[in-house]
Amino acid sequence: MKKLSVVIVSYNARQYLGPCIRSVEQAMQGIDGEIIVVDNQSSDGTVEDLKAHFPQVQVVESGGNIGFAKANNIGIRLSHSPYVLLLNPDTVVGANTLRQTVDFMEQHPQVGAAGVQMLNADGTRAPESRRGRPTALVALYKMCGLARLFPNSHRFARYYMSWLSWSEPAEIDVISGAFAMLRRKALDQVGLLDEDFFMYGEDIDLSCRLLDAGWHNCYLPCKIVHYKGGCSDKTTVSYVRVFYKAMIIYYRKHHAQTNFCIRKLVELAIWIRALLAMIGILPSRLVRTRVKTIITPQDLLT
To answer: How far is CA 141 from CA 21, 39, 66, 85, 272, in A?
Structure first.
């Protein structure tokens, strides 16, 4: 039996997928593992490129754009290893990241899922590397700016848990779906990704189900680069619709017992944010911010 299965869902991410797979293969040295790519009917030659240059990778064609959660579940069901890593195609993994993460999971059997320090393309730390459970109040604190004003507050800054050290392992609530190391035993208990989420929100939902079942979710300081370009274009109406719909699905599923007024206030805030995002799409597509320094795979610290 393999020790680790890496599941990557691709959709028109050909330019990112090659470097991602090569970094995974390098990081998997010394680990008996496999790579499974589930392709959601890419039109950019992804499947042909994979078959030509990565014959060792198991490629599954889903037959359509069936969504992130459903495609990941296909890959998980095809694997049989005790650890499953859900990995975005627009990522590059540090040379020691997989070994360190698997070792941590082996040493801490109560941990159901682990995430890592994600670096943006310019080398800055991505705040979503550590997230709290987005209760109605936690979400409101973020939306109204209190989380940004009081980054060291355990109450107001819980959305990104920004008081935590970046250099030490820590328990968190939510593991990002861009890099989610999952324990098979935990998945067998709580179930796979909820396919009601087409894309976005499924990682929050799974993380909360793990916590509710008594498992621990942890942040580890080992690194990956997340280019945030191979999974979605955030300046499209489609993105806004899917993203904010996922937020509504999550709140209605996990916070049905929350005070009615607070819950409706959060939902109203979500729709307002969606409307503002729609309004902001045009100028954001006309004006592109250039990143002066782009971190490369060679720059990624182990």
So the answer is: 38, 37, 34, 31, 15
Query: How large is the C-alpha radius of gyration of the chain?
Result: 19
Cβ–Cβ < 8 Å for 221, 167: yes
Own/partner long-range contacts of 160-163 (Cβ < 8 Å, ≥24 apart): 160/127, 160/128, 160/130, 160/131, 160/132, 161/130, 161/131, 161/132, 162/127, 162/130
- Mean pLDDT over residues 261-279, rounded? 68
pLDDT tens-digit series, residues 138-163: 888 988 899 999 999 999 999 999 99
Q: Distances from the Cα of 147 to the Cαs of 154, 227, 247, 274, in angstroms?
A: 9, 25, 19, 20
Task: Count CA atoms within 13 Å of residue 48 on its CB side.
Answer: 4
| Continuous segment of H or E residues that includes residue 238 | helix 237-254
* Distance, CA of 95 to CA of 169 (rounded, Å): 18
Q: Please answer whether residues 56 and 24 qualify as being in contact, where contact means their C-beta atoms are separated by less than 8 angstroms.
A: no
78-106 tens-digit pLDDT = 999 999 999 999 999 999 999 999 999 99
